[in-house]
Amino acid sequence: MEKAAVNEDGLVIPLIDFSKFLEGDEALKLETAKAILHGFQTAGFIYLKNIPIQPDFREHVFNTSAKFFKLPKEKKLEVGWTTPEANRGYSAPGREKVTQLTDPAEIEKIRSAAPDIKESYEIGREDEPGHPNPWPVEQDELVGFKSTMNNFFDQCKALHIEVMRAIAVGMGIDANYFDSFVDVGDNILRLLHYPAVKSEVFKINPGQVRAGEHTDYGSITLLFQDSRGGLQVKSPNGQFIDATPIENTVVVNAGDLLARWSNDTIKSTVHRVVEPPKQEDVHPPRYSIAYFCNPNHKSFIEAIPGTYAAESEKKYEGINSGKYLVQRLAATY
Ligand SMILES: O=C(O)CCC(=O)C(=O)O
Ligand SMILES: [Fe+2]
């Protein structure tokens, strides 16, 4: 197997060649699937290379995303995020708070309140009844935005299905076990922009981050990052470890619903985005794209066969996927 993408403080995140699963013979498929599952069971994170999404298209999507965030604020607010049920549209950055307080209690208050320095735009599947995507007007630079994003959405949707097949093969259950749970594509494509920020913002307030620590909610997240860095994953010992960008890879992490579905045999690991490791007075903007994969909203999620020996070992009640996700979203927005 490859050298791990990350190996520090007990956190080992494997780097896996996904073409070996997609195109390999039975033995190679199985070996690769087991490595993928093992990564999710131990780190909760893996890096995949040689995925079917082509590097030049990925770059085009990143360029297209940057064009959206360059729109004037009013234009972005016209397509604002509305409700957890829709979970689509633009979210503005929290206003920056830079203070010179000295009282520790006050500092703690501000620290915990320090808003993430980020803005995002979320896109859902186009054909979900009652929840149209609020697309920006396509003029000038933005011509082709919708078709690019919908194309990327569909390619990520297909990759989700393949990664779930790898998990199934790794678990030794039917390779297509998850297909009917993930075929609808109730997923969310989130474009992320972390604006340029002075390094001193992080120095003045040690609690300041670009994105606060959290776990994701769904089945898996496909996380495409640029080369800036700053993503960190919590090790089993509780330290945040850099998940350094590796060109043309996608970081894939398991979400809470997959952890629950797997009867906690798969981990949903805490991660965050902090000041980039490279020393600079002003950090340039960072762009990333998170594709949040979910089981179909209509799916009923209960322990996957093989993740428990006796009924009494099932840790959770079954739950409706859509209901679970809306509850989680409602708590954060
Ligand atoms: O921007 C990143 O690298 C991480 C984003 C993330 O974890 C999220 O949006 O859930
Ligand atoms: Fe996340």
TrEMBL record:
Gene Ontology molecular function terms on file: dioxygenase activity
Gene3D superfamilies in UniProt: B-lactam Antibiotic, Isopenicillin N Synthase, Chain
InterPro entries: DIOX_N (IPR026992), IPNS-like_FE2OG_OXY (IPR044861), IPNS-like_sf (IPR027443), Iron_ascorbate_oxido_reductase (IPR050231), Oxoglu/Fe-dep_dioxygenase_dom (IPR005123)
A Pfam family annotated for this UniProt entry: 2OG-FeII_Oxy
Entry keyword Iron: yes
This protein's UniProt keywords: Dioxygenase, Iron, Metal-binding, Oxidoreductase
UniProt record similarity statement: Belongs to the iron/ascorbate-dependent oxidoreductase family.
Protein name per its UniProtKB record: Thymine dioxygenase
Species this protein is from: Neurospora intermedia
